[in-house]
Design a protein that fits this description.
The chain is α/β, with parallel strands linked by helices and 393 residues long. It contains 13 helices and twelve strands. A seven-stranded mixed β-sheet has the order 2-8-7-6-5-3-4, sandwiched between helices. A three-stranded antiparallel β-sheet has the order 9-12-11. Helix 3 runs parallel beside helix 10. It starts with 7 loop residues before the first helix and ends with a helix. The mean pLDDT is 96. Bound molecules: pyridoxal-5'-phosphate. Its EC number is 2.6.1.-. Belongs to the class-I pyridoxal-phosphate-dependent aminotransferase family.
Length: 393
Amino acid sequence: MTRLEVPATIAMAQRARAMRGRGEEVLSLALGEPDFPTPAGVIEAAHRAALDGQTKYPPVEGTPALKAAIIRKFARENGLTYEPSEIMVSNGGKQVIFNAFMATLNPGDEVIVPSPYWVSYPLIISLFGGVPVFVDCPEETGFRLGAAALEAAITPRTKWLVLNFPNNPTGATTTRADLEAIAEVLRRHPQVHVLSDEIYEHLVYDGKTHVSIAQVAPDLKPRVLTLNGVSKAYAMTGWRVGYVGGPAWLIRAMGSIQGSSTSGICSISQAASVAALDGPPGVVEVMRETYDRRRRMVVSALRQIPQLTCAMPQGAFYVYPGIAACIGRTSAGGRRLDTDEDFAIALLEEEHVAVVHGSAFGKGPYIRLSYATSDDILRNACGRIARFVAGLT
Ligand SMILES: Cc1ncc(COP(=O)(O)O)c(C=O)c1O
């Protein structure tokens, strides 16, 4: 339990909520949660499912209807073929990760986590006695994972490599060439499995297309878990549905764990997810175009602040500006900013803007802003960040 911290993303959201509870207005760019409502057709499908009596315990690994929709999705969008025994549905992508690491990690097993990373990976790995091994993905290379850096991090104890593209927190995407180079390394190390977290798959910009490692390197597919979910693409964070395709032996083991913990996922959420996955792609496209517009708006506003550096992210709904020039300075409210966490706390206290410090994602001094919120909030928040930075001495 001492290894289990509250993720910084949640801690920052809690701080913001506490301030709101005191009647203070807070502009929150801290949480990775779409501001759109769940599409109406999805909600109607849930309603119908409830009225139709889909209210009993569902199968642990997922309803046949949702597994079939997931198989269609993987075939249609990723060129991946899975059998029903190779598919599992969980309470969000997070439970997929939890099941996978619980099923496979022995104390001391190493998991390579490219850094910056989503906060939950190392927390879950450590919970099961695993050792997260961080591999730096520098901003100069677009926060991408280099094959040489990966190779250098692999040891005989390496059991997993986590890939997360499009990436939380940087918004970095990957390319077929990058994945081919990574696959080449993995071929030399047959003990390494891959958890490919593709939950932001649909949110890519500038004409990019998402690529999956199991598609690029079909020979590695027997050791790849391809993780996805409905939370981000379909604005369904509260429905708690994530899913995964992978080798049947591992899916079976993960199913045993899930059967002894949460059992099958809410039957109504599963019916809703069928409607989401089989629904018209235009629904996702409208949200993607809105994120794209906001992305360009936020980056252009942040680039006008001379003390910040801001790469243009090509995926997800985050920007990850560098704040090195602000470290060591003092805020207008008299707070000394020794770290990016100091920056985030002072920004919240003095300008009421909630962001998450980059060191929580393994790489400072940066801050992560989520632009999955309204244009008004974004414009206002960027103005306050500019004012906060201009006030540093
Ligand atoms: C990279 C990444 N993977 C997985 C998840 C899990 O999402 P969920 O459990 O809602 O499916 C998140 C949520 O923030 C995420 O950012």
